[in-house]
Amino acid sequence: MRRPRVPKSGRTGREAEGGAGARTGLPAPPAWMRWLPVLYVAGVLLLEPVTPVEWPVSFVLIALPLVTAFAHGPVAVAGATVFGVFMEGILAGTPCCAGRPVGYLWERYYVAAYFCTGLVGVLGTILAAHRIRRERTLADVRFVADIAQRVLLRPVPHRIGDLLLESLYLAAAAEARIGGDLYEAVPTPYGVRLLIGDVRGKGLLAVETAAALLGAFREAAHDEPALPDLADRVETSMTRRATQLGGYEAGERFVTAVFVEVPAGAKLIRVVNCGHPPPVLIRSGEVRELDSGRSAPPLNLGILLGEPYHVDTYAFRPGDQLLLYTDGISETRGPGGSFYPLLQRLRSWRSLPSQGLLERLHHDLMDYSGDRLQDDIAALAVWRPADGVAVPPPSPAG
């Protein structure tokens, strides 16, 4: 699905199905960096004939091994070292247009240059070997992160009953492919139950909290007949988990979340909002936030609630689409510092096929932010096709 201008950290649900299990190779350096040694030598050869004998430019070939080590391996660096010494000897023993005589080949300054080039070559070879090892380690870490994300944020089913689903996850940093944003869709005896959430904080603690929340939701979604009871049970699990972990941040380890239930055979949805950006309903001629103004506190802050979770019910008819998202989308900033106008964009895309919504949102976010996301992003789109509408097959995994 994802083709032009896509960061390494971004993936849609369909892509995660096929891409998370394949180990990626070492990152390829930019083309200009690979050609830098050739350009460096070409510059020396162009400058040497016009340089007076007091300032022989061939001495700068001492740096050739290090220039090569930026983008090439130890074998290439060793070859560049031998080539550099050879070229220094050629330039030292060849007369040129500036009137330089023959006979400098074994002059002591040039011999010192040969020695220094060889020494720098040894250091450059070690540096290149170390860089290759670090790049392999980073590739392994990214591979493990992909697998961890696949376990934590497993791809949602493309279709559950009469609903079509798509997911999107974008990490703000390419090296940190997992974070505290989460989503899930579970078919249950009570209908399809959806969750999207955003864990406070970053790093391993946020990932651990997200994993605990998803585990609690996946289990409780099948057991609790009422959506408020489901939210309450997840809240209890989160509070217990935070207490077990301890630490001075136990009381601040909270998660904003939205629980949604789409009952089978009913043209409606039920929503419990726990301090999260409200879902957006997209209907022909209408785009609106489903916000009743009665949001509960975030999970693990339920002690502040004082009353049962409030359920809001909305119509969800054939042809409607529901977008659940984290605040990384609405808080994405453009070059001028303005926030991403999500509702305005959605209203301009009303004629867009429903299955293309997250793809379009993905590319538009990258364009708006200049490929520089400030926060992780997760989104879940649910579409109930109108009666008689042909549903295209899922896109191939990218």
Explained architecture:
There is one protein chain. 39% of the residues lie in helices and 17% in strands. The chain has 398 residues and is α+β, with helices and mostly antiparallel strands. The chain folds into two domains: 35-144, no CATH class; 155-383, Phosphatase 2c, domain 1 (4-Layer Sandwich), CATH 3.60.40.10. Mean pLDDT is 80; it is low at 1-11 and 14-22. Strands 1, 2, 3, 8, 9, 11 and 12 form a seven-stranded antiparallel beta sheet that branches. Strands 4-5-6-7-10 form a five-stranded antiparallel beta sheet, covered by helices on one side. The chain crosses the membrane at residues 31-47, 59-86, 109-129.
Strands, helices and their partners?
Blueprint: E1 10-12, H1 13-19, H2 31-34, H3 36-47, H4 64-69, H5 74-92, H6 108-152, E2 159-160, E3 163-170, E4 181-188, E5 191-199, H7 203-220, H8 227-245, E6 255-262, E7 268-274, E8 280-283, E9 286-289, E10 312-315, E11 321-325, H9 327-330, H10 342-348, H11 357-369, E12 377-383
Antiparallel strand pairs: 1-3, 2-3, 3-12, 4-5, 5-6, 6-7, 7-10, 8-9, 8-11, 11-12
Domain PPM-type phosphatase: 163-384
Protein name: Serine phosphatase RsbU (Regulator of sigma subunit)
GO molecular function: phosphatase activity
